[in-house]
């Protein structure tokens, strides 16, 4: 804390509290991904608890309303070919209802997805053409918008189409209205007379949209409506939810490829993953849960040109397969997945952000600065509700599909409950696996150098902890931290040196099946004061110091583990020290 800022705080009674520093991990996974989730006793116990909660507090609760809604709930992992937990509940009234759909739901039962469709829309775009056009103006690909841009006369009443990019459409940063006539248009939802009784002025016939929910708007009507619709904001001002942005995204992609959008979803996603219970338009009634009349429930509804915003249908089993494919980059290159699974804008809630088309949330893992990032998409249409969620750092995801008299927040309430129980178990299982694989003592084969390294994990600390590090008879912990923090050598004995290693995702696999994995070390002095409350400074900015200590072009903070064909660690090398240390037997 600067002296000036300390004086100001003191004057106004705002002196921040100080305490010993805590570890500041790098953004991303704290430990390597779990190899086999099903083998973890912590996770099995957590899933048993989740099952008990679902049965006791949802299915058999008189206050949950579960008698009038059905749901299919699955939890999946990128490392497992099948869901690690499934739970299906059929509403009591569905069995006696006059329905053309199923009488009992399971993992193959088809539901409507609503806005979860947008995940398919964005992934179809990425699979078809990649993201090189992400920053291109949408006017490059939609002639109607190019003509509108040329005749624009007002910033308030006409969107600046030339500033709206393909990426802004996918990330809710376009500044466009939510919908044209599809949702929220009172003349469509309430009729012409009711709004007048509520205090709205009568409208001239020319101001009443000719289409919307029924009949749906075709392309020409959509652009005629958009020409009359003012923007909500200038593009890239703030995240503002827009369905019409995804309709425009589909128009742009169709222009680029010359293909129908439904055809592209099928060839990019449905066929490669064999998703036989996922549909772009209404499937056979016998496949789905339909809690009443097929039209009144919106089962049979079609959104026309707006289908890419929220028209799709799927089973929970298919969505779990879809989620595993995203986690494992089965449909697009891995680097593109990494770009895609990142927050792109902030919201008023510092824990909540927005992606393409994700809602993004930082999940607190129980310790200061330890987070995982959750990417979700929720959907609701008629009598259907859906939630699709991924947590890449933990290689896990969930899907909940519901139908009937569903509460608005059922999906998120169940997800919150699962998160409270399962996330800590996943983190602990990952820590234990890391301890089993990487923990132990490593020594040089040349005893004359007196070089060794000891690694262990801690239940409350992130990453792999280096508890002892000797190189050429020198304690490297204060050396590494002292140089990193620009501490005078005379004061190195006062340091509380911390070195912790985090997975980088960099890996080489050799022809014999052995692997080399790179980890990045973070060097910290935990004796430094942890100052909270400053307006511009932070005690957690370790990303700035990466690779800031280099010896002969090799970073001191880069460690490479060698694993044999069975996955057992054989050795580790700190690159700057140019000395391979073998793992001692029994550790």
UniProtKB/TrEMBL annotation:
Residues 1-20 form the signal peptide. Residues 100-410 form the Beta-lactamase-related domain. Keywords: Signal. Residues 430-584 form the Beta-lactamase-like ARB-00930-like C-terminal domain. It holds the Pfam family Beta-lactamase. It comes from Pleurostoma richardsiae. This is Beta-lactamase-like protein 2.
